[in-house]
Amino acid sequence: MPVNAVDLNIEYLPKLPQKKDYGIGCIGSGFIMRDCHLVAYHKAGFKPVAIASKNRAHAEETARLRNVKKVYDTYHELLDDPEVEVIDIAVPPNRQVEIVREVVKHNDHVKAVLAQKPNGSHLQEAQEVVRLCDDAGIKLAVNQNMRYDHSIRALKWLLDRGYLGEPILATVDMRAIPHWMPWQEEQGWCT
Questions:
Q1: Would the N or C end of the chain have less CB density within 10 A of its end CB?
Q2: Band of pLDDT at residue 11, cut at 50, 70 and 90
Q3: Which of 3-7, 86-90, 156-160: highest mean pLDDT?
Q4: In a domain, 126, yes or no
Q5: Per-residue confidence at 127, pLDDT binned at 50, 70, 90?
Q6: Are residues 72 and 157 in the same domain?
Q7: Cα gap 171→152, rounded to integer Å
Q8: Domain that holds residue 181
Q9: Does the global pTM surpass 0.70?
Q10: What backbone torsions phi and psi does residue 73 show, to the nearest 5 degrees?
């Protein structure tokens, strides 16, 4: 390729792991779990095996809609299931630390946690979540909107190759009305 040519074979797709059959236990059955995570898991060939939510009927409806075989009354019961190796926590931030405190007690079979952002109501809770997982040898990922989106991955690819010069400022302006986050009002985060 000539020196000044631009390679437009942009790598924008995420690299999926070779092993995709980890049993995923889903905590929460709202919009993000029902219409985003579970849809993506099935599309990518992952294996959600169980779900629990504060509302059993809602969890059952989500399980039926998204082909999840087991529904538990509580996340404690879900955590006891040895088939569950990965925990996806899709609940408001003020509930996450209490769940992670229980998750780490099951590190004999739970190997990873995906927590929604923010993973705590304040910095100390978020740090506790990280520390608890580290201490238990459990991998932790925090789901940030758009982090693995095709557009963001393509932009990173372009930046890494210097095609856009040296960045001085970057912003992402998301213009969405988050109907899936009524908990923000409970937290006092919106007026």
A1: C
A2: confident
A3: 86-90
A4: yes
A5: very high
A6: no
A7: 11
A8: 150-187
A9: yes
A10: -70, -35
